[in-house]
Recover the amino acids of this structure.
């Protein structure tokens, strides 16, 4: 009986550790998205649901997550947003789609987007992006769609 209790305690401890790690990941993703929100002007209030006090950004509008609550998609196209991109976006390590087309985003593409190893699509079409494509994006093996 004692051996069974020990195994249950170990399993409970492992589950608690996994939960803490998942929440830490969700918090860092939420922090990255909050940095983006602070850098953008949002006259239509479309990012109003982006509440940085929530543990999980997967409940925010225009954010899609996988079954492990990791951000995989940002759909922010044609929302009348202005401002600039932030380097913190490079922390969204599971991001596959970054859709920002038809806004008034300006400035350069942060080189930190080269950290997004799973990025398939980066759509910055019809914005005011300046400069060149950072060389770091050239190492993204999954990237098949780049429009700017």
């Amino acid at each position: 009986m004692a051996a069974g209790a020990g195994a249950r305690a170990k399993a409970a401890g492992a589950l608690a550790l996994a939960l803490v790690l998942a929440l830490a990941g969700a918090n860092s993703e939420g922090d990255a998205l909050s940095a983006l929100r602070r850098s953008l002007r949002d006259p239509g209030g479309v990012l109003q649901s982006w509440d940085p006090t929530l543990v999980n950004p997967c409940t925010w509008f225009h954010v899609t997550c996988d079954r492990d609550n990791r951000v995989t998609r940002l759909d922010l196209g044609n929302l009348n947003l202005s401002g600039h991109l932030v380097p913190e976006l490079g922390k969204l390590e599971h991001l596959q789609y970054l859709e920002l087309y038809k806004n008034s985003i300006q400035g350069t593409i942060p080189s930190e987007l080269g950290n997004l190893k799973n990025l398939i699509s980066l759509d910055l079409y019809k914005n005011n992006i300046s400069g060149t494509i950072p060389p770091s994006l050239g190492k993204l093996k999954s990237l098949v769609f780049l429009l700017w």
Observations:
- The chain has one helix and nine strands.
- The chain has one domain: 2-147.
